[in-house]
Amino acid sequence: MSAPTEVPHKGLITASLMLATIMQVLDTTIANVALPAMRADLGASSDTINWVLTSYIVAAAIATPLTGWFSERYGRKEVFIASIIGFVAASMLCGIAWSLETMVLFRLAQGVFGAAIVPLSQTFLLDINPREKHGQAMAIWGAGIMVGPIIGPTLGGYLTDTINWRWVFYINVPLGAVALLGCAAYLPHMARRIRRFDFIGFAALAIGVGALQLMLDRGGEVDWFNAAEIWIELGIALSGFWVFVIWILGTEHPFLEPGMFKDRNFVTGLVFIFVIGIILLSSLALLPPMLSGIFQYPIITTGVVMAPRGMGTMITMIAAGKLLRVVDARKLVVTGLLLTAWSLYIMTGFGPQMDSTLIVVSGFVQGLGLGLVFVPLSTVAFATLDPQYRGDATALFSLVRNIGSSIGISIVTLLLTRNTQINHTELVANISLLDPEFAARMSGQLGGLMQSLTLTRGEGAFWSVINQSVNAQAAMISYVDDFKAMMWVTLCAIPLALFLRKPTARPAD
């Protein structure tokens, strides 16, 4: 599996790999804003349309661990090319879907074929670059991973508004075609290794991961642990993970090689990327609904306001790739976490009447922090790992990152929903003519507003305006509480950097 000293056409290979990676990562968020338009065309309800997202997430999560075995058995290049072809074909089918059932089926196929693209692109970039350039390679890879979800909602909204929601999927066809041509022409062939397939190990892991992702995605819809469904899914997930761990420690040919877990940097990297997924990617899930719901920004404006976040990420990712040669990776990670905590502190000052300045500044600072954390972590995690484990290791790294982000998004969404209800109740309790402060306002500006609305649209219109204001205030307080909680968790994650070791030696490639 060792890579040659100098791989021909490295630039074209890198560009092709990143095009395929961005294509796959975009599909995790690009379809979200198109759901209302899909619901009308596919005849789905507001509850069932979410299966368009759930089916993709669960399928990708289950198929990701298979990446290592398939790539070793059938060849990395062959599996990567097959994944692109299958993903593009499934995207075309999603675009022509005529019912919810067919859409869910095609999204399942899209998730299965797309699962291997991200981990294999990381594996190829590590293989074709010497160790001293791994930092730069991970900077390029990380840029696609982190920037994709940021531009996804904006691009999806633009395509839905200007053309049709089906182009959310059709756009993958030209991107995939270019990536396919480049990969087929220039990707190097890697040595294959005959390896028995551990069905029991895979089944246990697949059941555990699938049940966990289903629980995280469905929890908000069924009121979490007040529903029997969530308890059942949690029990299945824990049972699946328990059986998997016991099985791979005792079987002769395990699905995932336990030898990779002897590498301290890799194990620490897994723990770190799990935490990073929880605390850093959650803010990406909070901002679009906040900007559209409270600030009434259209989709395009939301994308423009969030663009500096992607710019900041790109800047520090490029810089981190070069800095890793002269600066300890742990210092970069700590600096990135401090910048992220600072950005979240800025976000705790958000208010419903402010302009976009704080949003832009905090987003840019957070982007700088993201880049400084992700690149060194992705580099150090694989710096001392034996290359024979790369296929399984990159798949596991991507899986753990996705699970962390799913858990983080579920937690902040749950806190947001419940805190909004609590805040609304507390604010409404103070809206009474018996309250001196409210009575004073009623004799001033609010009284004039009430008189104006009562004369034109009736007294109910005034109280409707008051209720809308209370809803916005309650939601804003809840968003600030979420940002504050993420700030403290980010600060608490800093000591994890101490467990990372500066690489001194590694088995030769």
TrEMBL record:
Indicate where this protein resides in the cell: Cell membrane
Q: Name one GO cellular component term.
A: plasma membrane
This protein's source sits in the domain of life called Bacteria
Q: Which residues form the Major facilitator superfamily (MFS) profile domain?
A: 13-505
Give the primary localization class.
Answer: membrane
GO terms, molecular function: transmembrane transporter activity
So where does this one cross the membrane? 12-37, 49-67, 79-98, 104-126, 138-155, 167-187, 199-216, 228-249, 270-291, 297-320, 332-351, 357-383, 395-416, 483-500
The alphabetical list of record keywords is: Cell membrane, Membrane, Transmembrane, Transmembrane helix, Transport
Membrane topology reported for the UniProt record: Multi-pass membrane protein
Report whether Cell membrane shows up as a keyword of the record.
yes
Could you identify this protein by its name? MFS transporter, DHA2 family, multidrug resistance protein
